[in-house]
Specification:
Layout (H helix, E strand, L loop, with lengths): L4 E2 L31 H17 L11 H18 L7 E6 L7 E7 L5 E8 L12 H4 L4 E3 L6 E4 H12 L3 H6 L6 E7 L1 H15 L11 E4 L5 E3 L10 H4 L8 E8 L2 E2 L11 H8 L1 H10 L28 E8 L2 E7 L2 H8 L8 H9 L3 H17 L17
Parallel strand pairs: 4-7, 7-8, 8-10, 10-12
Antiparallel strand pairs: 1-13, 2-3, 3-4, 5-6, 6-9, 10-11, 12-13
Amino acid sequence: AGPRRARALSARALSPSSIDQPPNNRGSTSSTSGGSTASVWVSHAHLMAQLSDAVYAVNRTDTPSEAVLSAKIKTEVERAGREAGLGRGALTVVQVATPEQWPFVAVDERDASGAVVARHVVCRGVSMRDADVWLGPRLGRALPRQISPGDGVVCHAGVLDLAEHLFDAGGVRALVEELPPTAKLSFAGHSLGGSIACAFLALARLRLRFPSERLLPCCTFGSPPVLALDFAAPTASDDVTSTLGLPGRDFLQAFVLKSQLVSDPVPRLWLTADPFFGLMESALGLSALLDWRSTPREALPSSSGARPILSRERFLFQTCGTINLITSSAAGTRCEELATADEALDALRARPEERTPAGVLRSLLCHSRRAYAASLAALHAESRAASTPSSLLDKETPRKSR
């Protein structure tokens, strides 16, 4: 694998609202106060992180009635908008799903005239305050299942069941189908919420054939991977994003937080970076199974990234899209794009420091939704403060003066 690149992402795939521009300038690649299209990308990721934090206001303990729930989530969404630098009234809550289903919030972003320019569907992760809706048996169904026969993508069966239920009975399908024709759509979430967001994205593309040009990047924060290429129906694609017909890998953004030599452990679940996979490799009988399941590359279509599960090259799922490693130090906050799957897996593997009791605690703290929101806020602030912040921009990233 080549050297990692500490940079913001290419602007070619990004069209979220910029920091100093009104929402109706979505799609523009003009510069922001940071003097770079990179600020546009940071702005969208920052807003998604703030909304992914805000959706945790939906829980049974603090929202015993529908009126209390509506008031609280409205307050939290308004806070998220302020944190992201949006004007008053730019975000309006369209729908709130209750904990009895699975909590998600649909938020419309409006321009100065009140027209909807984007709809963000943001899912909540597991909350200790709603222990009875953890859906353990459903999440335990971790084997891949086809989303649509022959389309080349599989999803975690339990997560797909939940996403399908929310899509139909929960109203997500209507949110997508009733979107104004000029508005764009994005999905996001923290932890399990991000996994559900990925399933929503796949359902929107494969079941509804939602136009890819009207999508904004799907952002996940500390989420376990739940998508992979279908080995039973392999295509020539080397990544899930191309099989879904997305314009580029940048349209699926996975953020992983790292601090003090440890990183969030959740995004390594079900990958070959999962410690449980390492135990399988060291067990004599299971190691032989992995060898038997491994398939020669020449048996697959040219350039295909599909691999069988429980093989040396794939546990259950695969890294998809762009993996971004966020690290903080005295020098500032950096967002490091991991350019290849091998780089991503290497970065996600547990280090010796994480195997001590103190390391386990620090790694779990990296999974905090508020830690992700704070880290993206720091990136946001740094992108505004400097015209060419070396910790964020690749040298090849094109820049324009305002």
